[in-house]
Amino acid sequence: MKTVLFVPGFKEDLNTRDYTSTIKMIEDSGYNVEFIPINWDRTTIDNWVAELEAEYIKHNPKDILLAGFSFGAMTVFAAAIKQNPVELWLFSLSPYLSEDIHSKDMRKSWLNNIGHRRTSAFDKLNFKKLAKSIHCKTLIFAGEIEINKWPGMKKRALRANKLVPNSKLYVVEDVGHDVSDKRYIEAIKQAI
Question: Using CB atoms within 10 A as the burial measure, which of 68, 81, 147, 160 is most buried?
Fold first, then answer.
């Protein structure tokens, strides 16, 4: 049985939102799921990837799927470039990579909110270059409301779908930035 290593959104844990429902659906679809708690305090994506990799190396990549929500999606993407899993599931991939940070869609207040150290770490990650390292099946999900509200998220989802080989984009109707929304969960279920 394949195992899904699931990374939550920024400053979230298992109880922040109803991750339990999302995880249950994935398990009911025939997968084991390991929720990967991340220490978000005073850390950067480099630390988050290291935390995920500490668990990832315990498994055979041929038996692993990486899944993440928001900054968790960025984390699993960055981990997958080093060693591809069987599949990569990106839920509401955040637009904070180098190209995003320097786009006109990026608000300075958003960068101020995450801090200088995190922004510097994200700025080192060029999506176009990194996408060439992904060779596994990749499912990209985005809520219709979130991509309409934040143009950067829409551009990130479309570019990811274009640049990552063997990827497919799913836009979930009438859903915002919430992987635990019943409609989002149903879209994942249909796709996997």
Answer: 68
* Residues forming a β-bridge with 69: 91
CA distance 53 to 82: 10
CATH fourth-level superfamily of 3-191: Alpha/Beta hydrolase fold, catalytic domain (3.40.50.1820)
* Single-letter residue type at 93: L
Cα distance between residue 8 and residue 11, in whole Å: 8
Closest to 44 (Cα-Cα) out of 108, 101, 83, 96: 96
What pTM was estimated for this model as a whole?
0.95
In whole angstroms, what is the distance from residue 49 CA to residue 44 CA? 9
Q: How many residues does this entry show for the chain?
A: 192
Q: What share of the chain is helix, strand, coil (3-state, %, to 5)?
A: 45, 15, 35
Per residue in 41-69, pLDDT (tens digit) is: 999 999 999 999 999 999 998 999 999 99
Q: Which of 85, 158, 57 is CA-nearest to residue 68?
A: 85
CB 134 within 8 A of CB 73: no
Return the amino acid letter for 21: S
d(CA 137, CA 150): 26
- Find, among 18, 9, 73, the residue nearest to 183 by Cα: 18
The answer to whether 32 touches 2, Cβ cutoff 8 Å, is: yes
| Mean predicted confidence (pLDDT) in 141-165 | 96
